[in-house]
Amino acid sequence: MENMLIQLSKALYQTKQENQRIQQNNLMLETKIAENETNLILSMNACVELYEMLLNVVDQYNYGKDTITKMASAMVNIYYNLIKRGLKTLDDVPEKIKSEVEELLKEND
């Protein structure tokens, strides 16, 4: 009986150790996820700024229309993601892609 209690005690200790290791790993992963989310938001905001600067150039100088057209579908997804995170509103979306962003929002609600 005493041998069995010792075995159970060892098993409990090992389980507690494993639980602590898992909790530490979870904390580390949660920290990395938060860092990745921050980096993703920074990247999306940088893309938004570049896109909006390019839109101004196209509107003012009729230059770079091909670049804007190529970026449009990616920008729809970026604006969609920023809106879903509560960092942008539909009013922040440039008119050129606003209807596409609005449609994507409706499809995914």
Keywords:
109 residues; 0% strand; rod-shaped
Can you offer a commentary on this structure?
It is a single chain. The protein is mainly alpha-helical and 109 residues long. It has one domain (2-107). It has 3 helices and no strands. α1 (2-61) runs antiparallel to α2 and α2 (65-84) crosses α3. The longest helix has 60 residues, at 2-61. The protein is rod-shaped and about 85 Å long.
How many beta-strand elements? Answer: 0
| Residue share in β-strands | under 5%
Number of domains: 1
Q: Helix count, per DSSP? A: 3
The radius of gyration is 25 Å
Low-confidence stretches: none
Task: Give the helix/strand layout.
Elements: H1 2-61, H2 65-84, H3 95-107
Helix pairs in contact: 1-2, 2-3
